[in-house]
Amino acid sequence: MKRIGLIGILLCSFALVAQTSKPAKPAQDFRIAGTAYDASSGQTLPGARISLGSTEGNKVPDRSVLTGPDGAFAFDHLFADKYQMYGEAVGFPQQGFEQHEAPYLTGIVVGAGIDSEHLVFRLQRGSVISGAVSDEFNDPVRQANVMLFRRGIDNGRFSTHFAREAQTDDQGHYKFAPLLPGTYFVAVSARPWYTHSALELTTQTESRASQQVIENMKRLDVAFPLTYYSGVSDSSDATPIAVRSGDRVTADLALHSVPSAAVTIKTSPPQNGRMPFIRLSQQVFGDYDLPSQFEQRNRGEDMLFTGIAPGSYLAHITIPGGDHDRVQEIEVSGDTVLDPETMGASGSASIKGIVRMASGSPASREAVILIRNHKTGRNEGRRVDEQGTFEFDNLLPGTYEVSIANNGNVYLLDMAASNAKINGRAVTIAGTSSVDLAITLGKGMGEIHGVAQRDGKGLGGTMVVLVPVNADYNSVLFRRDQSDSDGTFTLPRVVPGKYSVVAIEGGWDLEWSRSEVLKPYLAKAETVEVAANGKYDIKVQVQSK
Question: What are the residues whose beta carbons fall under 8 Å from the beta carbon of 137, sequence distance 6 or more?
């Protein structure tokens, strides 16, 4: 069952009273009961708050109890229904019952002949990553931006994605808590407080200053490279931090300054009397676009960025009145000069498109066209205008998967393109191509209900995956769920087409969107062809990882 949405909801004690004060009919007098445990130690967990709510109508949990001295909890006078349950305690962040990769958890089915009174709720203790950031003089680096990244399954593939960030305090300390078990990376972006650009020296100042003063200023013209734990400047060399339940991990980082570089942007003459907008960024773990810290000043009619650590950057330039933004990969070393008028090769591809319903009517203005870069996993969206058109610019060459969002029961039925190759729902752009894309939308998605079974009995906590044909180029068609305590699952909003359904016990760390990973399981999968507005009931045999 997919989590319906509960974070930070305060449950008042009178809510429990209100829910239980109404007498229930005997036929509706069911019970959920169990014991909460510390997943690490196996000890019972007294004083934990267990929250419960029906999944019907997207309700949030509306009642809660505290576990007793033996970790036991119970909810009485329940209607036959399907419930979502969460637990939390001091040192234990809020988490769902048998929660795996968020937001999936096991729903608890209550009814006649169903045992819902012997539940075992294992709570993962919160973990901490903390440390200190210092410079080469062993002084604390204050107000450094510390970023936490987590490696895991995202859209069916292993990737490292941004989790959260923090700033160091006046002692250079930072802390991330509470964290659930996983593999993490830490990166730090900062500027030396004492940095002083040598480019601030004017000819007049330089003629009056002593050579020692000039050399001292040059020695202070330094920057900190983006630094990963433990002490490297390339994300591919970063040290992973494996965090288990309840771990307290220390990850100190020492920053070492390097002579800074400068980037001059030629802006004369100004476009339409306005200066271009410039942004420099670095790609972190392939898809996180980190804005770079620098100082900006004028150099005649040009723009000068100083205090930049040498390295690889993306330069984003918006030309006032221009057709689209321009972006280019640059290698900064020493004094680098960029002319926006020459930027138009790598990184300036675009997609212009029109959207129509299969009936020929225009698409809703609420529709949003999404594109996802196959390599980086980065998503972008554009709302369709009154004419049914949309535009993406500032695109790097590559393969982008297209989908539609925010448009009710409508789905992408077909598309055609000029200056690009189409495979499934993927569009491949080469060089600086300007792609024209025509999208046809259909209406009426299906829904699949089923039971994940082993030896004829429903099995809860199992990962269920709906696999489309040509899976590598149709990732937006995948659907997933976690089977509830009786083995039932629901796969909603299914785009019409042919699919296979697999249920894999312990499959939460599989790259489920890769065809080569799924291939061994497809031989025992259930196949289904979904029609517009179709509803289906199937049984799927659970396979072991």
Answer: none
Mean residue pLDDT of the chain comes to 85
- Which helix (DSSP H) or strand (DSSP E) does residue 216 occupy? helix 211-219
CA distance 36 to 48: 8
Q: What Å distances lie between residue 279 and 282, 295, 313, 331, 393, CA to CA?
A: 10, 12, 10, 15, 16
d(CA 134, CA 109): 53
Separation CA 101–CA 45 (nearest Å) = 23
Domains, the chain, with CATH or none: 13-123 (2.60.40.10), 127-258 (2.60.40.1120), 260-342 (2.60.40.1120), 349-443 (2.60.40.10), 446-544 (2.60.40.1120)
* pLDDT band at residue 432 under the 50/70/90 scheme: confident
- The Cα 512–Cα 36 span in angstroms is 31
3-state SS track over 115-141: CCCCEEEEECCCEEEEEEEECCCCCEC
Among residues 181, 184, 26, 5, the alpha carbon closest in space to that of 103 is found at 5
* CA–CA separation, 329 and 281 (whole Å): 10
pLDDT the model gives residue 6: 39
* Higher-pLDDT residue of 89, 329: 89
Q: Is 58 helix (H, G, I), strand (E, B) or coil?
A: helix
Contact 540, 505 (CB under 8 A): no
What is the pLDDT, as a whole number, of residue 19? 41
pTM, two decimals, is: 0.79
How far out from the chain centre does Cα 91 lie?
A: 25
Give the integer Cα–Cα distance in Å for 250 and 131. 5
Residue-wise pLDDT for 31-45, tens only, equals: 999 999 999 899 999
CA dihedral of residues 236, 242, 248, 251 (deg, nearest 10): -10
DSSP state at residue 230: T
pLDDT per residue over 249-303, tens digit each? 999 999 999 998 888 887 765 555 566 777 888 888 876 788 887 777 666 677 7
SS (H, E, C) 81-106: EEEEEEEEECCEEEEECCCCCCCECC
| Token pair listed for 487 | 């083995």
CB atoms within 10 A of CB 292: 21
Beta-carbon contacts of residue 545 (< 8 Å; ≥ 6 apart): 504, 505, 506, 507, 510
Rounded Cα–Cα distance for residues 502 and 522 (Å):
7
Sign of CA dihedral 360, 421, 515, 160: negative
Nearest by Cα to 284 from 250, 330, 316, 238: 238
